[in-house]
Amino acid sequence: MFAHMPTRPLLLLCTWPLSLSAECTTIDITYNFVPAEAQVAIGLAADIWEGILVSAIPIKATVTWAPMGGSALGITFPNGRKDFPSAPIAQTWYATALANSIAGVELNTGENDFDIFLDSGTDWYFGIDGGTPDGQYDLVSAALHEMGHGLGFVGLSKKVSGIGSFGMLLQSDFAPLVTSFPWPQLDTLPGIFDRFLAHTVNGPLELMDNPSAALGSAMTSNQLRFNGAFAMEANGGTGPRIYSPGAYTLGSSCVHLNESTFPQGNADELMTPFSASGEANLWPGPVCIGVMRDIGWTIAPNVGIADDRSDRAIRAFPNPTDDALFIGVPGTRPMAATIL
User: Fold this and answer.
1) Closest by alpha carbon to 59, among 116, 140, 117, 113?
2) What are the DSSP E strand ranges found in 257-323?
3) In what order do the strands lie in the sheet with 197-199?
4) H/E run at residue 166
5) In the chain, count of helices (H) and strands (E)?
6) What angle do CA 200, 204, 210 make, to 5 degrees?
7) Confidence band of 331 (pLDDT split at 50, 70, 90)
8) Selection from 15, 235, 288 nearest residue 131 by Cα
């Protein structure tokens, strides 16, 4: 529910800081029709998230390579749970990867935590060095973005004929794509991400009638902010702006950082709705990490919410490896060292 479009909308760009932290969780991916060279790039995106988030419960995902007609680079469907044991807020949906981490047990046995669809028709760059050529889209960056949605950087908003709502999304809204897990009955309830959304004048969206014209107006006001304490700290003390343009777009509006606020080259540009070719961004950014902490994730102790990793002189990935190790220095292309 949570698309990435080309400029082609999606995400991207800029420097390429990578974590040196040990794996803090496990993301197990099942690939459907995904070329082998693409699996390497997608695997690196998983490695990056594994070093950021802490969970004792392995995360399960499916990535499907499918034609999307150029409408988006990727789209992600998170599985969800509400009112589970230890849920911080009642009557609220959490991505199952996050819910499992909070509960300390697997709540969705036999089901994926999220499904990602990537456009097979895109001219992708499969490299893992951040050196994306002009005209191609960086697959590591796209996968990193989509996994962010699957892990909980996502909401349940919808607007139809002027009426805005939370928790009224239907599987049919995203046809012909179908999830590998049963579509939940959302019961007009918000997601945990939605509970932090606020209009700069009219206040929290969770306090507005759901559904309502007032909620719909707020969703297209271009005045939404994410008012979580950690995201605000990472954003200099104010709530980061959320993408909420005058024309509502399902899968883009209200579930991304604002494009013009975090433009190409900004450290927090990864979780904006649009991407550009020829660019790469291999770190979620301090605001995104702050958002993840606000919604309930435990962050690895050596990953600061305001840490863009630029203080680290050397970056190495993938780690561990038995093949090739890439070593990077800020401002340079990474070097490859073969493991003998």
Assistant:
1) 113
2) 274-275, 298-299, 315-317
3) 203-204, 197-199, 224-226, 241-242
4) strand 163-166
5) 6, 21
6) 125
7) very low
8) 15
Angle among Cα 117, 122, 128 to the nearest 5 degrees reads: 85
**Token pair in block for residue 17:** 């800081």
Closest CA to 162 of 218, 202, 207, 226: 218
In angstroms, the CA 102 to CA 93 distance is 13
CA distance 336 to 339: 10
* pTM for the predicted model, two decimal places: 0.86
Nearest-angstrom CA–CA distance, 253 and 220: 8
Q: Strands 137-138 and 124-125, how do they pair?
A: parallel
Q: What is the pLDDT of residue 55?
A: 97
Taking the C-alpha atoms of residue 194 and residue 168, their distance in angstroms, rounded to an integer, is 13
| Kind plus residue range of the DSSP H or E element containing 95 | strand 93-95
Digit-coded pLDDT (tens) for 146-205? 999 999 999 999 999 999 999 999 999 999 999 999 999 999 999 999 999 999 999 999
Cα separation, 170 vs 318, whole angstroms = 38
| β-sheet with 315-317: strand ranges across | 315-317, 324-328, 335-338
Give mean pLDDT, residues 47-72: 95
What CA–CA distance (Å, rounded) separates 247 from 245? Answer: 5
What type of residue is 230? F
d(CA 305, CA 301): 10
Residue type, 225: R
Place of tokens 């349940």: 156
| Token pair in block for residue 92 | 């609220």
Using CA atoms, how far apart are residues 196 and 225, in angstroms rounded to an integer? 8
Residue 252 scores a pLDDT above 90: yes
Gap between the terminal Cα atoms of the chain: 43
Provide the mean pLDDT of the chain: 87
